[in-house]
Amino acid sequence: MDRVVVVLGGASEAARASLDSGRAVLVENSDYGTGCASSLLAGLDAAGECEAVILLLGDMPGVTTEIVDTVLSQWRERRPWAAAARYQDELGHPLVFSAAAFPELRALHGDKAVWKIIDREPETRVARLAVDATRPPDVDTWRDYLEVCAAFGVEPQSAEATSP
Q1: pLDDT tens for each residue of 21-32
Q2: Architecture of the domain made up of 5-162
Q3: Domain boundaries in the chain?
Q4: What pTM value is reported for the model?
Q5: Residues β-bridged to residue 28
């Protein structure tokens, strides 16, 4: 059975109030300040026993369900140890890790830890799965946020309204 786990961090109360979680399980990561790996660990704990996990970031709204489905379908055909979406211009999310990778994932800490695995492993271990699109933008700055709002035709909230 496919499960969806959403890990919430710094502004979890505001995020929880604004989300229609549907069938997703919302999980608190109280250690979010220690880096992205803490969110991964919280998600792995909540996922329980499974054949693989798909990782994507909440600040990449352009990663559509179609992209996730494409990557998952290709992963299921090949079942590599891990995989990353290979967009037309670069690698990106979603990432897929088989259950065999969970012990290594559980040993990670800090930020960008998963990418260190992706970057160091050969394609025979970490497959690059083709996605026929450019990599969606990652929203890390206020300017990124404004650009994504414009691209999606959404009126941006003020900085004060988005602060935790």
Answers
A1: 788 889 999 888
A2: Alpha-Beta Complex (3.90)
A3: 5-162
A4: 0.86
A5: 8
